[in-house]
């Protein structure tokens, strides 16, 4: 049985007796159905469940789309089932397509760290395994420097060391179609109700944006 299925069952039981079941109606940010802007760039991040990462980045002004997928491993034909074993080396990842004239790479990096606990090793919350590790993939030396500068800035805010891996980008493999825009299409899923949406709301409360009007 896959990790999120197990967690969904556990979360559903909790929802029956906790305030999580009262999560207010939330407008879920989706990909913008526009053509890529001239000069559009791509940033690649892993921060636990890609369902969560997808709506975090798609909520930001200047981001056209965040595509769920797999990066950081050796399997050249990854599937969700294979990645969830932890044996492919891949992490659940998002490719973030953004307009650098409207949002900077630095802002994306800040959002990346603000939307997770970067001190957790091979996990985020109850999602456990190397496939849920925190990774910032860089495409050039400037991106690497931006990531390292943010790590240096936030390190004093935590008691534990920052566990985020900073590695060069190599390959991105899009996840199966049913994973794309998953939270939008399945807001009633117990894991989404009890984990994904509360995590997203906490991010919105603590990160200044800029956010799209939803």
From TrEMBL:
Top enzyme category: oxidoreductase
UniProt source species: Dinghuibacter silviterrae
Protein name: Peptide methionine sulfoxide reductase MsrA
A Pfam match: PMSR
Keyword presence, Oxidoreductase: yes
EC number(s) reported in the record: 1.8.4.11
Catalytic activity: [thioredoxin]-disulfide + L-methionine + H2O = L-methionine (S)-S-oxide + [thioredoxin]-dithiol; L-methionyl-[protein] + [thioredoxin]-disulfide + H2O = L-methionyl-(S)-S-oxide-[protein] + [thioredoxin]-dithiol
Alphabetized PROSITE patterns for the sequence: PROKAR_LIPOPROTEIN
